[in-house]
């Protein structure tokens, strides 16, 4: 199976999601992406699963999913927004 992205070093601290996607580091404000994750306890935030295909992140304790493309501003067949830091 082809992978959409290579996702590494995913972590949440407070309202900040940090991850490496395809070799680029991202620091994303979760309060603008998911109030549920931003308001969750540190232990709930810490349990993150990366989909094997690299398409998304899943928080099983919260039943919340976010797409990697949406988080980093990728439009399939289009350009990438500047969310990297």
Word description of this protein:
It is built from three helices and six strands; from the N terminus they run βββααβββα. 19% of the residues are buried. It has one domain: NE0471 N-terminal domain-like. The protein has 85 residues and is of the alpha+beta class. The longest helix is centred in the middle third of the chain and has 5 residues. The strands form two sheets. It has a three-stranded antiparallel beta sheet. It has a three-stranded antiparallel beta sheet with strand order 4-5-6. Helices cover 18% and strands 34% of the residues.
List strands and helices in order, with pairings.
Layout: E1 7-13, E2 16-21, E3 24-29, H1 35-39, H2 42-46, E4 49-50, E5 56-59, E6 64-67, H3 68-72
Antiparallel strand pairs: 1-2, 2-3, 4-5, 5-6
Could you name the key traits of this structure?
85 residues, alpha+beta, 3-stranded antiparallel sheet, 3 helices, 18% helix
State the total count of DSSP E strands.
Answer: 6
What percent strand? Answer: 25-35%
**What's the structural domain tally?**
1
CATH architectural type: 2-Layer Sandwich
Provide the CATH superfamily: Uncharacterised protein PF10387, DUF2442
Principal-axes shape call: globular
Main β sheet profile? 3 strands, antiparallel
Provide the gyration radius in Å.
12 Å
State the distance separating the first and last CA atoms.
Answer: 30 Å
- The strand order across the widest sheet is 1-2-3
Range of helix content:
10-25%
The CATH topology turns out to be: NE0471 N-terminal domain-like
Low-pLDDT segments: 78-83
């Amino acid at each position: 199976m082809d992978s959409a992205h290579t996702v590494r070093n995913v972590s949440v601290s407070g309202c900040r999601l940090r991850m490496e996607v395809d070799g680029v580091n991202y620091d994303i404000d979760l309060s603008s992406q998911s109030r549920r994750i931003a308001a969750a306890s540190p232990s709930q935030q810490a349990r993150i699963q990366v989909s094997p295909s690299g398409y998304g992140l899943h928080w099983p304790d919260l039943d919340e999913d976010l797409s990697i493309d949406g988080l980093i501003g990728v439009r399939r067949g289009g350009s990438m927004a500047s969310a990297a830091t």
